[in-house]
Amino acid sequence: MRWKQRGIYWLFLLPSLLGMLVFYVIPFGYSLYYALIDNMGSRQFVGLKNFAGTLANQLFQSAALNTTVFMGISVPLGMGVALLLSLCLQRTKRGRVPATMVLLLPLVVPSGTMVYFWKVLFDSNGLVNEFLLRLGVSDQWVVQHQCHMGVLVVIFLWKNISYNIVLFWSGLNWIPKTYYEQMALEGAGIWRQFWNVTWIYLSPTTFVVMLMSIVNNFKVFKEVYMLYGAYPSADIYMLQHYMNNQFLSMNMQKLCSAAYLLFLVLGVLLLVVFYAQKRVTDAYQ
Amino acid sequence: MKKAHVAANVCVILAAAAAIFPILFTVAGSFMSGEEIVSRYTAEITSANQGDFVSNGIHFVRFGLLPEQPTLEQYRQLLWESPGYLRMFWNSVLLVVPVLLGQCVLAPLAAFGLENIRWRYKEAVFFLYIIVVLMPTQLQLVPNFIVAGWLHIRESYLAIILPAVFHPLGVFLVRQQLKNFPKECLEAAQLDGAGAYQSYRYVVRPNLTSVVAALAVLLFADNWNIVDQAVVFLKNTYENPLSVYLGSVVTGDPGMFFAVSVFYLIPTFLVFFLGQDYLTEGIALTSVKA
Fold first, then answer.
1. Residue A49 domain flag
2. Whether A80 contacts A163, CB under 8 Å
3. Do the chains contact at A114 and B26, CB–CB below 8 Å?
4. In this predicted model, what pLDDT tens digit does every residue of A36-82 receive, in sequence order?
5. Number of domains chain A contains
6. What ipTM was assigned to the predicted interfaces of this complex?
7. Going from the N-terminus, what domains does chain B have, and what CATH number goes with each?
8. CA-CA distance, B233 to B141, in Å (whole number)?
9. Which residues of A touch B198 (CB under 8 A)?
């Protein structure tokens, strides 16, 4: 009887586990083999040659650089603005529920449906340029200073920032109100309350938000694709585009070596954030 | 103290306005005629848009929320004269529904199974789930692409649907929730003679309704906005989900863009208004352990 019971739990797990192994884990492991052979025909083992080739590839380099720049801007900015907004939300009494609802809306809105709005705002004949020209900025300057990266950051934050707000919000609610009351009794202002209570007790959450922000960053591909198509200008050519080009040309060696490089770098980055989070959390418990 | 409250309220109101404005803009545009949309936003100077801001021979957008002559013409065209858009909308439905059904059945079962098996490596298995959850889409696409080649299903919807059904997010979310489930309830059910399936069906599953709803909302938001997978797997334009094709409507058929977008937004709004509490819950759950 008991063994039969055990068997049933395995039966519950198995369909999902097998599917996950078959569609994700096993082929991803297998792709390491593709990254180590010369081509799909002769299948000669060439060691790390593909990796060296990928690292030396100029397109890959600029894609990696653009992805890093985008991450370097949008992660801290997204976290900062989200923290500020969730602190503000905490201080609003009436209207908090509808406000949160409205803030969450962009998260479910398909990227494609908003394309026209962003075009009207940021295109060369758009509102932002008109504003600059009316201010007396010269035509030349406007043409020369097209900032695609900035546009992407704005659109990305518009769509994804509420994710961070929700995470910060649930983190803020874990901090006992009595801590603030204690500080207020001692005559501490908002700033001291923030640094001595909020910042410290929120730091485990902050690391989680950072982790999720890094992961979510790659979703920006949707926006780039919608606005600029499959071949955007060089300053916003991201790793996702590089990978997509390898899919389309079916170059498994380039594809898999790039995938493993990304996997390694991202893995190390996430592990660092994860352990930092663990240390901070343990310190407060 | 008072000042801080005012500032906080102002910040929240500004942010909410920024969040909703692009959506209002899109909805407003859907009530404009095709000619009005073109004359407002084109770079060319035409007889219809003289008087707008012009620089270097380029017409600048005439921004505004109020249609000059409100009309439902675009919707009429969309529903009765544009089978192409309807077909792509239907493609989106075909891609999303099987994923939602599959995940909502399989994920809670698997999470319950994983929670209850006794095996040394079960946490290692769960760690595997977490790693895959954290992989960016382009990385997940690599194994998806390879398997699709093995199974000869590249360029078919199955290449997108099957990996999405087995995407580990569902098991991850439900297991996070199950960890808080009181063991005593299960023991009590077993004392009363319930087998594994009965205790799942009558004790555990009813308590997972809200996390499964959260999962459904998250999955819907993700898959209704599917782009990356479709770009890799689908070759023919008419096979694309509308989420991908919308990008080309802006230049190809600008007059229709807003009506098509609003049409595509309707299911999103429905899901959102029914499930927005679950959405917040789902997001919060993804962070519990991470």
1. no
2. no
3. yes
4. 988 887 888 888 888 999 999 999 999 999 999 999 999 999 999 99
5. 1
6. 0.89
7. 2-75 (no CATH), 81-287 (1.10.3720.10)
8. 10
9. none
